[in-house]
Amino acid sequence: MPMTTSPPYDATAGAPALSGTERTRVRRLAERAATDRRALYDVLDSGRICHLGVIVDGSVRVLPTGYGREGDTLYLHGSTGAASLRAGGEVCVTVTHLDGLVLARSVFHHSMNYRSAVIYGRPRLVTDPEEKLTGLRALVENLAPGRWDAARRPTRKELAATVVLALSLDEASVKSRQGPPADDDEDLALDVWAGVLPVREALGEPVPDPLLRPGIGYSK
After folding, report:
1. pTM for the full model?
2. Most CB contacts within 10 A, which of 11, 112, 158, 173?
3. Strands in 31-130 per DSSP E
4. Which residues contact 187 (CB under 8 A, 6 or more apart)?
5. Per-residue pLDDT reduced to its tens digit, 127-174
6. Range 192-213 burial, b when 16+ CB lie within 10 A, else e
């Protein structure tokens, strides 16, 4: 199967709408659902960790793992010994960003500002060597842009020990909430602070490896 090579969302003019299915239809608070595929790209491209839901030996497993996107394909990877990557069948991948804690006047209306994506599908095992490198590059660059060209490339032995899965983004949904609390009118006069506490992810100062040779600096 050929690799998808459509451009990332910020280079796409008039991106197609998300294809709706019964599994991706947002039933509760449907007004929070996005229909533009660029919203899906935005959630994925600004994340680092996804949660992969699989069935292994009849039992549900949800595992945090890294990922990378190339066009309309999501790449996942792991060890060849990982049962979760050898299980086959349908999977569910989720990515969530917490943007703020919404503090209301009433306990009932406390909430969160968030952006989330849910992807369903049956991933395929990547066997083509070129696509396997493309998938691994997407994973590394999503984690730390620029590192693929800066670090040593994987050896044949390392590639043989690594499974790369490709999951189509054909069946996906995006849901988000932004804004202040939605208190009831009768609670607006209460002497209780209400508003949003923003939540932001930030990188700290680099901590060098104790075995790093002198004179090698960190570059973003």
Report:
1. 0.85
2. 173
3. 33-34, 49-56, 59-70, 73-79, 91-103, 111-121, 124-125
4. 104, 105, 106, 109
5. 999 999 999 999 999 999 999 999 999 999 999 999 999 999 999 989
6. eebebeeeeeeeeeeeeeeeee
Query: How far is CA 172 from each of CA 23, 41, 73, 156, 203, rounded to the nearest angstrom?
Result: 9, 11, 12, 34, 29
Please state, in angstroms and rounded to a whole number, the distance separating the CA atoms of residues 3 and 72: 9
**How far apart, in whole angstroms, are the C-alpha atoms of residue 83 and residue 91?**
13
Paired residues of 34 in beta bridges: 174
Q: What is the pLDDT of residue 33?
A: 64
Which pLDDT belongs to residue 32?
Answer: 65
Look at the alpha carbons of 68, 74, 80, 81 in this order and tell me if their dihedral is positive or negative.
positive
Q: Taking a C-beta distance cutoff of 8 angstroms, is the pair 76, 32 a contact?
A: no
Please report, for the chain, how many H helices and E strands are present, in that order: 5, 10
Which residue blocks in 23-145 are alpha helix, DSSP H?
A: 37-45, 83-86, 129-143
- Round to whole Å and give the CA distance between 128 and 109: 50
Beta carbons within 8 Å of 128's beta carbon, 6+ residues apart = 3
For 73, which DSSP code? E
- pLDDT tens, residue by residue, 28-86: 766 666 677 899 999 999 999 999 999 988 899 999 999 999 999 999 998 877 777 77
- Backbone φ/ψ region at 179: left (φ over 0), alpha (ψ -120 to 50), beta: left
Domains of the chain, first to last: 9-198 (2.30.110.10)
Q: What are the residues whose beta carbons fall under 8 Å from the beta carbon of 9, sequence distance 6 or more?
A: 15, 37, 38, 40, 41, 42, 45
